[in-house]
Amino acid sequence: MKATHGKRGSNATAGTSCSQRKLSAKRLPRSGFHQFRIRFSRQEMDEIQGMLGVSSIRRMMFEGTLTRETQGTWRLEGLLGATVVQPCVASLRPVTSRIEESIVRAFVPDLEMPGPNTVSVCPDDDSIEPLPDVIDLSHVATEALSLGLPDYPRHENTKAVAENAGLVETPGPFAALAVLKGGK
Prior knowledge:
By secondary structure, the protein is α+β, with helices and mostly antiparallel strands. The protein is built from four helices and nine strands. The protein has helices spanning 42-52, 137-148, 158-164, 173-180, and strands at 2-6, 16-17, 22-24, 33-39, 56-68, 74-87, 94-108, 128-130, 134-136. The model is unreliable at 7-19 (pLDDT under 50). The radius of gyration is 23 Å and the shape is elongated. The chain starts with a strand and ends with a helix. Strand 6 (74-87) and strand 7 form a beta hairpin. The longest helix has 12 residues, at 137-148.
């Protein structure tokens, strides 16, 4: 991962390379920004693959910026890119999907999350989270990937495979009722 710190509006880069993906909120610069670019290793992708229950992850990258805003809030804006293979829900053939997700989070200090039986102050804004002691960029990327995966991946030739296998769609209940009534 390449990390860059700078003052707001500055193009200055430190060019520091670090392997740390867990950022201590206390160590982030008081003003300015923190840029990151993460290319996940084969081992990391295999671990994420197991957690998400997909067949494979071929490439995964997460890049973006953490910017300090008013009252200690950190705004994360990033782009997640991943190539994922899942089994088709109908034929079990491999389906390759390219996931491109824009990620926006606002980590707000001293924010209390509502309990399970309470109403949220911001029910429509799921990008607001309490500022943790450690911002885990790998966790943010994995969460975004899990939300971006197709729920029901279908192989492009699923219908042709079903027809070739002799599988015929069964008629619905109203078609069966019409047959019983004598086609009336």
